[in-house]
């Protein structure tokens, strides 16, 4: 008879096509029994079992049969979410009235800044991927209609699926994605007027089939205008993360963004200081190009958590440009670890553990 390790090794070749990760890493293997002439496997999905998900079980069974059918009878059961998570989803739909979280989504978090170009999309992308790598189900919605960055930063140039008036997200690096960049050319979107842009975001909020998610991360455009208000009015966000660079001019914008969230009763979950310092890869010398420490000081002044500092690093920019977020392309680097620490801190804050 095969050993548990041999069976697990084969199961680790079976991928969930929606999450593009193998069923062992995803924690689907709930039960594995090797008896007298039988191998019984239970795969528990975090989402309802659709035909596509059933196919994951068929793939597992086929691989086990190829390897061990002469030694054992193989059974693979695919089951849906735990009762607790089903209850949670039901509770969420029942409590939905007016603005509220989308059913089946635990936390919606906006990544925002008053100022452009400070690294919102970079932070949103790497946080989403880091959370997904920790085993969570994660969606990433690019709400920047005029300058969508997510298709480039996540390396996808794919059309979402459309059926029965619903939109099905695209998947990359273990994250479900939606962006205006998948649907229209950037030049076309540039000429849209405000109401069209808000309408498009509305549709993304109501018509996208996200399924069950632990986190839906929103990459906001810079500023405190229409789009940000539409989102705030439509959804009850768990909170926002404000990204800033360390210098005084950027910090004035942090205060403005924080005021906007306060007006619509959205808590600021924390502040991230991006481009906090630069370490020369040649000589190790550290430079604080845009000053340093302003993000932490603002967080303290506002009484909100400081989530961490991210260095200015060649790899962060290059990874964004090639569409492989740095937490995947250089997972051992200081800058990737800084993103992972921020993701871990965020999930602790949302779980109410800090
Ligand atoms: N820590 C970093 N190190 C190096 N490059 C970075 C870092 N953070 C962001 N960048 C680069 O800076 C540029 C702007 O970043 P990004 O697009 O994430 O900012 P943004 O705030 O989303 O901009 P916008 O306001 O236009 O939406 C990108 O080229 C990105 O790769
Ligand atoms: Mg952006």
Task: Provide structural commentary.
This protein is an alpha/beta fold and about 350 residues long. Helices cover about 40% and strands about 20% of the residues. The protein contains 13 helices and 17 strands. Helix 4 crosses helix 13 and helix 7 runs parallel beside helix 8 (about 225-235). Residues about 95-100 have low confidence and may be disordered. The site of adenosine-5'-triphosphate (ATP) has 21 residues, from helix 4 and helix 11.
Task: Please provide a brief summary of the model.
The protein has 13 helices and 17 strands. With about 350 residues, it is of the alpha/beta class.
Alpha carbon gyration radius = 22 Å
Number of domains: 2
N- and C-termini, Cα separation: 47 Å
Counting helices, strands and paired strands, the structural category is alpha/beta
Please give the structural blueprint:
Elements lengths: L3 H8 L3 E2 L4 E2 L6 E6 L3 E7 L6 H18 L4 E7 L3 H12 L10 E8 L7 H14 L4 E5 L7 H4 L7 E3 L2 E3 L1 E3 L2 E5 L6 H5 L3 H14 L5 E7 L6 H9 L4 E6 L3 H16 L4 E6 L4 E2 L6 E2 L6 H9 L3 E4 L4 H9 L3 H4 L4 H17 L4
Parallel strand pairs: 4-5, 6-12, 6-13, 7-11, 7-12, 13-14, 14-17
Antiparallel strand pairs: 1-2, 3-4, 8-9, 10-11, 15-16
The structure holds adenosine-5'-triphosphate and magnesium ion.
Descriptive keywords:
binds magnesium ion, 13 helices, Rossmann fold, GMP Synthetase, Chain A, domain 3, single chain, alpha/beta
């Amino acid at each position: 008879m095969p050993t548990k390790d041999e069976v697990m090794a084969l199961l680790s070749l079976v991928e969930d096509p929606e999450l593009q990760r193998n069923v062992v890493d995803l924690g689907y293997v709930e039960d594995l029994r090797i008896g007298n002439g039988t191998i019984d496997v239970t795969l528990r999905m975090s989402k309802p079992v659709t035909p596509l998900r059933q196919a994951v079980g068929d793939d597992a069974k086929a691989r086990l049969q190829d390897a061990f059918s002469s030694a054992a009878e193989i059974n693979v059961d695919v089951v849906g979410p735990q009762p607790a998570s089903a209850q949670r989803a039901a509770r969420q739909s029942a409590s939905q009235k007016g603005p509220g979280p989308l059913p089946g989504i635990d936390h919606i978090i906006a990544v925002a800044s008053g100022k452009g170009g400070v690294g919102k999309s970079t932070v949103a992308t790497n946080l989403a991927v880091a959370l997904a790598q920790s085993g969570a189900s994660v969606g990433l919605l690019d709400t920047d209609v005029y300058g969508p960055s997510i298709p480039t930063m996540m390396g996808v140039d794919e059309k979402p699926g459309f059926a029965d008036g619903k939109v099905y997200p695209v998947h990359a690096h273990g994250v479900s994605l939606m962006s205006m960049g998948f649907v229209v050319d950037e030049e076309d979107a540039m000429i849209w007027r405000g109401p069209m842009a808000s309408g498009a975001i509305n549709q993304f909020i109501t018509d996208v089939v996200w399924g069950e998610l632990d986190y839906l991360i929103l990459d906001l455009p810079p500023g405190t205008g229409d789009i940000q208000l539409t989102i705030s009015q439509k959804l009850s966000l768990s909170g926002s993360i404000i990204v800033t660079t360390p210098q005084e001019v950027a910090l004035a914008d942090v205060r403005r963004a924080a005021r906007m969230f306060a007006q619509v009763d959205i808590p600021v979950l924390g502040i991230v200081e991006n481009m906090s310092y630069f370490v020369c890869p040649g000589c190790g010398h550290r430079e604080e190009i845009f000053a340093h420490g302003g993000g932490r000081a603002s967080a303290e002044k506002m009484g909100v958590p400081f989530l961490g500092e991210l260095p200015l690093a060649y790899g962060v920019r290059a990874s964004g440009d090639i569409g492989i977020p740095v937490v995947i392309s250089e997972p051992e680097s200081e800058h990737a670890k800084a993103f992972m620490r921020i993701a871990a801190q965020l999930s602790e804050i949302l779980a109410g553990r800090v």
